[in-house]
Design a protein that fits this description.
With about 900 residues, the protein is α+β, with helices and mostly antiparallel strands. It is built from 37 helices and 28 strands. The protein has five domains: about 230 residues, Calcium-transporting ATPase, cytoplasmic transduction domain A (Distorted Sandwich), CATH 2.70.150.10; about 45 residues, no CATH class; about 160 residues, Rossmann fold; about 190 residues, Calcium-transporting ATPase, cytoplasmic domain N (3-Layer(aba) Sandwich), CATH 3.40.1110.10; about 230 residues, Calcium-transporting ATPase, transmembrane domain (Up-down Bundle), CATH 1.20.1110.10. The structure holds adenosine-5'-diphosphate and magnesium ion.
């Protein structure tokens, strides 16, 4: 093994490094790699030290509310109310364990997610290129790097083709660095400085352009990046805006609770003249009841579960924050090819100045025919077509490979479709490749929108070019017709463009072909791609993805705009956009990349108010579109897959990278990765985002409900100056708040998407979780109903038995039975309320009472708990409860019926009003 010294790596000839690492140009054998993996360990940067288990655990017992309860317990012990003290502490422990369990589950969900995003690299094993998990790389491996790849380890370049690397993660410098494979002298290494050695590449950096092969010399924590990580070793766990808001909310509600508590404490002492210890514990009960203690862990858990649900629907979200932002999204900037369409190209037409051809058949197979005037062609007579096919199959990096009796495309669909065309026309690619040996390539880039290869045929040297129509005609000066090369004048140009537009208007994607004989050895783009001879056009169909029409309709219903941003030709883009419903009006603005560059901010803003399509734009131009939309107040989701998409992905509120076609760089810059590259998955994720937010509101509404019926008894007690004995004791309040309410509430946090969720506009950014509506509903409506029923229960027991405190026939104590009924009535009101909280507008009769299992389980648990409180002797004495009679149960069981029916009536009128407002 070699030393981990970059200077040494840089100054040593590559052959020596191969020797030192026991490797070669062919890389390692799979077996050897496994042996090394065992020895050096996986290639990964150890995650920063997690907060210790104990600390997390204890955190749940040292929260503000927990401390209050500990103190309350101590005071109860001091006042010799031992049972009360024990009970308070028990409640505290149970509550702490519960929130710890929630925390744990949320963490598990997030960890599981990280494992769903494996990264791969291309490595030489057994002399062949193979896909390998980055974690399984070992020193001695030979890795192939291309633009958009993350560099997976530290190493030395073996070969290098104009590679540019972004090292900002290591150096903080955002300018790219050029790399080369040559060995350096000691002086050169010294002059370069750390990380700047031209022949070394480092883990944590990425390839911006060019390509090359590297010899892996250090992996995992042995890399420079690993050293740095081990020094800082912190993960920033930024809190989501939602979590921050919840913290603020909890603090505010706690303050209100404390103020109420102090008022009650003073009232108890001065109005009722209770002893101060009792007054204190009484006031404390109120405080604890009003603090929404379970809020934060529950919200984190429901966010984490939403993330898991999204993952099942092919949207992998990297941070919990994104779930929230997704629900707010107002605009989606989407690629066309591959996201809205299938990216399965089939050439249907070929047009040459001399003739036009129709092509039949679909898919990557040769079943289909090329016809001219409805006649099957004889290729030997079609010289111009031959030339087009020659350019097409030679200026082509893709191939069709036989696999299980069918052809499989390796490469890009655009190029694949040309190979299919050639197959259908029975053009021999292999023979062409032998006659014209490939010398070099000027690769496709999204700015030029052309690709050229240079070939040698005997003494002659040829350039073959394919690309976008304008981009090709711009560099052409002649054209081919019936084997003759003629000057390309404006009339012919117009004719070509008119034909192209005919295709484009039909939604076909066109590609232009041209060539030229080269006279000099120059291979720069500018000198090769000029004075070309135009040959013809192909027009291909790229069908919309399944379900994309529905997804787009959903976006329209949900007031989410879709802006198509594509590299394709304007008319093609518009035609497809219209076909799938992205644009629908008459005033659609199609802005090209060139126009966009020249456009002033103000004009762009004006244009963005209309239906708009961006065509022939380069990915880096998306950044401006995204930021301009943001300055108009939009919450923008933007898709992308290439290196140049990264800035826009970072800038967007939700950057969406393609999981299949996306580069490492794009995936890293994104907030969400689509496992299936499908537009529909974005819309599904938005739906989940909206659902989870509204579920959190449902949860919040539910836990606030019980506050009023919990407070009213104390108010009665205080303002009657003790004439009305306290209808609900402190322990009983705690038993609702930290006992019976908990599980049904959790069920609400996982409620299914409510019908109509995607028929509403997105919520406003910065909208508060706790709306006035929720407060009104919690206190003025559900809370009021529950208060009436519970106080009603209290008086009902008392009045029936002679007010107050006449001993019962069975020797029971009327007061205890009466308080028990208050408590049980609150619980039964909450049973009605939990059903009510499940929807905001929809009828329960429509979504079904039994469709949320967790809620049902929660209610069952609640019933068991309240029965124990009523009948178990030990609990009776701790919670001041007593057995109730069968007729009392009838009263209780009847409660949820009006609670639900009244609310159904309200929702009915609400729906009617909403419908009216809509029409
Ligand atoms: P999009 O994926 O949004 O359609 P691209 O940037 O991939 O946009 O392609 C833009 C245009 O460049 C295409 O419409 C086509 O004319 C041309 N083009 C795409 N791929 C190639 C290629 N491999 N060789 C030559 N031209 C290409
Ligand atoms: Mg493309």
């Amino acid at each position: 093994m070699t030393t981990t010294d970059p200077a040494h790596w840089s100054e040593t000839p590559i052959e020596t490094l191969f020797k030192e690492t026991n490797s070669s140009k062919e890389g390692l054998s799979t077996q050897e790699a496994q042996v090394r993996l065992k020895k050096v360990g996986p290639n990964k940067i150890e995650a920063a030290k997690k907060q210790s288990f104990l600390k997390t655990f204890l955190g749940n017992f040292t929260s503000f509310m927990a401390i209050l309860l500990w103190v309350a317990g101590i005071i109860a012990f001091i006042a010799q109310m031992t049972e009360l003290g024990i009970a308070i502490w028990l409640v505290n422990v149970i509550n702490g364990l519960f929130s710890f369990w929630q925390q744990y589950r949320a963490a598990q969900a997030t960890n599981a997610l990280q494992q769903m995003l494996p990264s791969y690299t291309k490595v030489l094993r057994d002399g062949k290129e193979a896909k390998c998990l980055v974690e399984e790389l070992v020193p001695g491996d030979v890795v192939h790097l291309e633009s958009g790849d993350n560099i997976p380890a530290d190493g030395r370049l073996i070969i290098c083709d104009s590679m540019q690397v972004n090292q900002s993660a290591l150096t903080g410098e955002s300018t790219t660095v050029s790399k080369e494979a040559e060995v350096l002298t000691a002086q050169q290494v010294q002059a370069a400085g750390q990380f700047a050695e031209a022949n070394l590449v480092y883990e944590g950096t990425s390839v911006v352009s060019g390509s090359g092969d590297m010899l892996v010399l250090a992996t995992g924590m042995q890399t420079e990046f690993g050293h740095i990580a081990s020094l800082t070793n912190t993960v920033d766990q930024t809190k989501s805006p939602l979590e921050k808001e919840l913290e603020v909310l909890t603090r505010q509600l706690s303050m209100i609770a404390i103020i109420i508590g102090i008022l009650f404490f003073l009232a108890a002492i001065f109005f009722v003249h209770s002893p101060w210890v009792q007054s204190f514990i009484f006031a404390l009960g109120m405080v604890v009841a009003f603090i929404p203690e379970g809020l934060l862990p529950t919200v984190t858990l429901s966010l984490a579960m939403a993330v898991q649900k999204m993952a099942k629907r092919n949207a992998l979200v990297k941070h919990l924050n994104s779930v929230e932002t997704l629900g707010e999204t107002t605009v989606i900037c989407s690629d066309k090819t591959g996201t809205l369409t299938k990216n399965e190209m089939t050439i249907e037409q070929v047009w040459l100045p001399s003739a036009q051809y129709e092509v039949s058949g679909t898919g990557y197979n040769f079943h289909g025919q090329v016809t001219k005037n409805q006649q099957t062609i004889d290729l030997t007579k079609e010289t111009d077509l031959c030339q087009l096919l020659r350019i097409g199959v030679l200026d082509n990096d893709s191939s069709l490979e036989q696999k299980n009796n069918s052809l499989q495309l390796v490469g890009s669909p655009d190029e694949g479709s040309i190979l299919v065309l050639a197959g259908k026309a029975q053009f021999d690619r292999q023979q062409a490749q032998q006659t014209y040996t490939r010398k070099s390539v000027l690769p496709f880039d999204s700015k030029r929108k052309r690709m050229t290869t240079i070939h040698q045929e005997g003494e002659k040297s040829w350039a073959f070019t394919k690309g976008g129509i304008d981009e090709t005609l711009n560099v052409a000066t002649q054209y081919l017709k019936n084997g003759q090369v003629l000057p390309l004048d404006d009339t012919v140009k117009q004719q070509i463009l008119a034909k192209n537009d005919d295709f484009a208007k039909a939604g076909l994607r066109t590609l232009a072909f041209a060539y030229r004989q080269l006279t000099n050895q120059d291979t720069t783009i500018a000198s090769v791609e000029q004075e070309l001879i135009f040959v013809g056009l192909t027009a291909s169909q790229d069908p919309p993805r399944d379900n994309v029409l529905e997804a787009i309709q959903t976006c329209h219903d949900a007031s989410i705009r879709i802006i198509m941003v594509t590299g394709d030709y304007g008319l093609t883009a518009e035609s497809i956009a219209r076909k799938i419903g992205v644009v629908r009006g008459d005033d659609v603005r199609v802005i090209t990349g060139e126009q966009l560059t020249a456009m002033a901010d103000e004009d762009l803003k004006e244009n963005l108010q209309h239906e708009i399509i961006f065509a022939r734009v380069a990915p880096e131009q998306k950044y401006r579109v995204v930021s301009m939309l943001q300055s108009l107040g939009e919450i923008v989701a933007s898709t992308g897959d290439g290196v140049n998409d990264a800035p826009a992905l970072k800038k967007a509120d939700i950057g969406v990278a393609m999981g299949i076609t996306g580069t490492d760089v794009a995936k890293e810059a994104a907030d969400m990765i689509l496992a299936d590259d499908n537009f529909t998955s974005i819309v599904n994720a938005i739906e989940e985002g909206r659902t989870v937010y509204s579920n959190i509101q449902k949860f919040l509404l539910y836990i606030l409900n019980s506050n009023l019926p919990e407070a009213i008894p104390s108010v009665l007690f205080l303002f009657s100056r003790g004439l009305i004995p306290l209808p609900l004791t402190v322990m009983q309040i705690l038993s609702v708040d930290l006992g019976t309410d908990m599980f049904p509430a959790l069920g609400l946090a996982t409620e299914k998407t409510e019908p109509g969720t995607m028929k509403r506009p997105p919520r406003k950014r910065g909208a508060h979780l706790l709306t006035r509506n929720i407060l009104l509903k919690a206190f003025g409506w559900y809370g009021l109903m529950a208060s009436l029923f519970s106080i009603g229960a209290y008086f009902y027991v008392n009045v029936l038995n002679g007010w107050p405190q006449v001993p019962l026939a069975n020797g029971g104590n009327v007061y205890a039975v009466a308080t028990t009924m208050t408590l049980a009535a609150i619980v039964f009101s909450q049973i009605g309320a939990v059903f009510n909280c499940r929807t905001t507008t929809e009828s329960l009769f429509k979504i079904g009472f039994f469709t949320n299992r967790r809620v049902l389980f929660g209610i069952a648990f609640e019933l068991v708990l309240i029965s124990c409180l009523i009948y178990v002797p030990f609990l009776q004495s701790a919670f001041n409860t007593a057995a109730i009679r069968p007729q009392d149960w009838l009263y209780l069981i009847a409660i949820p019926i009006p609670v639900i029916l009244f609310e159904e009536l309200r929702k009915f009128f609400l729906r009617r009003r909403l419908r009216k407002a809509d029409s």
